[in-house]
């Protein structure tokens, strides 16, 4: 299936051109029928639905609420450092807003098309340091930047249905997508690519350990060895192999692997209590 998105036939482009902007090569070298503008429209629709869903549960931390200012100051500082790495393809096109969902029992994060990122408070509190968290954020940013969410949703729902959602004409499917994103399963290629770009993004910061995501997966492995299986493993399998792959990528790139020594991560966690 991945080859479909790398190469699109002349016939496919001709048909797609009747409804979307076509199969022009994007900044990642992909040829997708679904355009960047479609990504942004779809992301806007989905993020509004996600916000509404978690707001109704009382779990969405409102960035405009002064009570949440400290938490978002910490979060945005980390996100902006990654986005300023010079390595994010759609840094200027996508919105790149990141929101916190208050659920201390969930160790997860997810991305919508167009750069809307959601992080559960349970994941923030679970991690030991800012480099690990930056590694996970880099992974989720990569899912949006490399358009994995769009590719997976297009496989799952089909082009015409996804376009109808992007245009606001399919509220039923929009709700389905919004409620399933947290558990959306990517194929092995997409997960491997997101891990790789996490290293690239963090390496570009010249601040974080570029293999920060490996520290997260190492922590997950310890939990599993102790008989506890975090929910994260249901959508992000094979942590052992991924630790090695991340470290191999860091070694190949020759990027910094020493922890940044950032001292405010505990303050970030405390701001969520």
UniProtKB/TrEMBL annotation:
For this chain's record, the cofactor binding note is: Binds 1 zinc ion per subunit.
The cofactor required is: Zn(2+)
Q: Which residues form the signal peptide?
A: none
Keywords of this entry = Hydrolase, Metal-binding, Metalloprotease, Protease, Zinc
Q: Which Pfam families match?
A: Peptidase_M48
MF annotations from Gene Ontology: metal ion binding; metalloendopeptidase activity
Q: A GO CC term? A: membrane
Is the keyword Hydrolase in the record? yes
Q: Which GO terms describe its biological process?
A: proteolysis involved in protein catabolic process
Q: Where is the Peptidase M48 domain?
A: 74-248
Q: Does the keyword Magnesium apply?
A: no
Indicate the family of this protein.
Belongs to the peptidase M48 family.
What protein name is recorded for this chain? Answer: M48 family metalloprotease
Q: What is the lineage of its organism?
A: Bacteria, Pseudomonadati, Bacteroidota, Cytophagia, Cytophagales
């Amino acid at each position: 299936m991945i080859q479909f998105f790398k190469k699109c036939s002349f016939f496919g482009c001709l048909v797609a051109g009747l409804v979307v902007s076509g199969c022009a090569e994007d900044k990642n070298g992909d040829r997708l029928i679904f355009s960047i503008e479609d990504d942004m429209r779809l992301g806007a629709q989905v993020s509004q639905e996600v916000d509404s869903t978690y707001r109704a549960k009382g779990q969405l931390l409102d960035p405009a609420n002064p009570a949440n200012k400290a938490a978002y100051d910490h979060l945005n500082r980390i996100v902006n450092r990654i986005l300023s790495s010079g390595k994010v393809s759609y840094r200027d096109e996508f919105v790149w807003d990141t929101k916190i969902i208050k659920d201390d029992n969930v160790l997860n994060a997810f991305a919508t098309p167009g750069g809307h990122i959601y992080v559960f408070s349970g994941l923030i509190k679970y991690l030991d340091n800012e480099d690990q968290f930056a590694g996970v954020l880099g992974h989720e940013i990569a899912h949006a930047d490399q358009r994995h969410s769009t590719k997976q949703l297009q496989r799952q729902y089909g082009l015409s249905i996804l376009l109808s959602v992007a245009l606001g004409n399919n509220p039923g499917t929009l709700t389905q997508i919004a409620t399933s994103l947290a558990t959306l399963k990517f194929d092995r290629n997409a997960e491997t690519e997101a891990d790789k770009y996490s290293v690239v993004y963090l390496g570009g910061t010249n601040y974080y350990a570029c293999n920060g995501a490996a520290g997260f997966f190492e922590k997950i492995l310890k939990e599993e060895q102790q008989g506890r299986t975090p929910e994260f493993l249901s959508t992000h399998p094979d942590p052992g192999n991924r630790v090695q792959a991340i470290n191999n990528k860091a070694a190949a790139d020759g990027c910094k692997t020493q922890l940044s020594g950032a001292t405010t991560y505990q303050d970030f966690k405390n701001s969520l209590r």
